Amino acid sequence: MTVTPRTVLAGLALAGVAGLAYATVEARQYTLRRVTVPVLPRGQRPLRVLHLSDLHLTPSQRDKVAWVRGLAELEPDLVVDTGDNMAHPEVLPTLLEALDPFLGIPGAFVMGSNDYYAPVPKNPARYLYDDARSLRTPPRQLPAAELAAALRDAGWRDLTNRRDVVTADGRDLALVGVDDPHLNRDVFPDGPDAHDGPDLRLGVTHAPYRRTLDAMHADGNDLVLAGHTHGGQLCVPGWGALTTNSDLDTRRAKGLHGWPGARPDEPRGGGSTWLHVSAGLGTSPYAPVRFACRPEATLLTLVER
Ligand SMILES: [Fe+2]
């Protein structure tokens, strides 16, 4: 066959269509990631923390609802939800159905931009360079207040610019969280700490902006959980994320790291805070694609240092 510019263009177009088709399939390949974090005081038995993030749920996503509900088989001691739960103004009953198996156990949450505002149509590639720009058009409100009230009624701790405490499997946890830094709604709560001598200090934020991670590190937290990045969402195999949609470096777009420096488990130096960034479970309904970055929830098994 003679290679002409026309055949090259046709080949590229075909590869693009195939890649896009694959990326819509990968966006539904929900995956459980398991990590172990040596962060508890000496002599303690393990504590299981289920980290959920970025569900971006719509009422028709029954497969996602069933998958999330199935995570209850893990019997976590604590559930932490780092926001961006909703992608439709009428999804709250469906979301509460997904979370229902966890509402009887200790939990904590913060909100993300996609709990306050419904997504708007945009070029999928825009995720790569400026998501916040889409918020300049007047967005539709989502039922964030109703969601927060339902979670608080279930006993989950609301960490929207506040501190709280929770007991999980007999362990006392001091919690601190902020409202979404991506929307500049974050106000780090002043001390003093609500708990004296906890077993663990846990920081929670939706978007892992550096100012928030610095504040949580300076506050003495042992572990910080964050979402928002979608792990880069469209990644390059063998390379990784191209963006974190924040000022966090792409190396830490997802997974277990240290803040401000390296951790697992830093043989040189010390004193960094453990940082876990979830790649999350969803996408915008207007950009339902993931590539080399499956949707995920994480079971963190906390063990003694
Ligand atoms: Fe998100």
From TrEMBL:
Signal peptide: none annotated. InterPro entries: Calcineurin-like_PHP (IPR004843), Metallo-depent_PP-like (IPR029052), Metallophosphoesterase_sf (IPR051158). GO terms for molecular function: UDP-2,3-diacylglucosamine hydrolase activity. It comes from the Bacteria. GO terms for cellular component: membrane. GO terms for biological process: lipid A biosynthetic process. It holds the Pfam family Metallophos. Residues 47-231 form the Calcineurin-like phosphoesterase domain. This is Metallophosphoesterase. It comes from Actinotalea ferrariae CF5-4.
